[in-house]
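**Protein record**
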Amino acid sequence: MDTETEFLTGMMELHFGGKVKGQLQKIAKKVAWAKGWPIRKEAFWNAEAFMWRHKIDKKVRQAIEKEFSFLRAGYNLDLGCGAYSYVPSVGFDVSEKMLLFNEQCYEKVQGDIEKKLPFRDGEFDSVTAVFILNYVQNVRELLGEIKRILKPQGVLMAVLSSCGINGWQKQKEVHEFSKREWKKVLLDAGFVVRSHEKEKLWFFRCEKEQ
C-alpha cells in the first residue's frame, strides 16, 4: 500500500470512530497535499475532500439545489465550494483537492476566504456560501468583500445547519451563532435579509442595499 492510500484508508477509519489520529499525523508528513494535517487548514480540507460527496444527505442536497435554482441563469461565485456546487459556478476554495473533485465549477480558483477576494468590483450576479460562514474568522470582512464583488442587484445565498457541525469538523468552527444572531450579522453587513428554515437548514437570502 502506498503512503497516500494508507493515509486515506486511515481517514475512513477515523471517521468511523477509529483512534488513529496520531498515526495519521505521522503518515501525513509523507503526503504532499496532507502535510501539516490536521492543523494546517489546506491539509485538513484536502483530506476531507475524498469523502465530501458522501457527507451530505441526498435530501439535503436536493433542498439546497431547489432553493438555488433561480441563480442558474446568472454568473455565480461559490465561496468555499468544497467538492460539490449546487449551481454552475466559479469555484473558490482553499483546498486543491476539493476543487479537483468539484465537477460543477466551470472555473476554479484556489485561495483563502480570510483574505481580500481576487475578483473585480461588481463582477458577480450572485454568491453562494454553503456551510462555510461559521468557519470564517473574519466573517464581517468577508461579507464586505462579497458586497464589493456583487453587482448592484446581486444576491448572496448563505446556508447553515440548524443542528450544528459534526464532532470532527467542529474543531475548525470559529462561530456558533443562532439563526437570529446570523441574521443580525448579515443585516449589520448592509444586506437586506430574508431567512427561513427547511430540512434542518437555515437559508439566508441577502440582497445588497441600494
In short: The helical segments are 3-15, 21-28, 41-49, 58-68, 96-101, 139-149, 179-188. The longest helix spans residues 3-15.
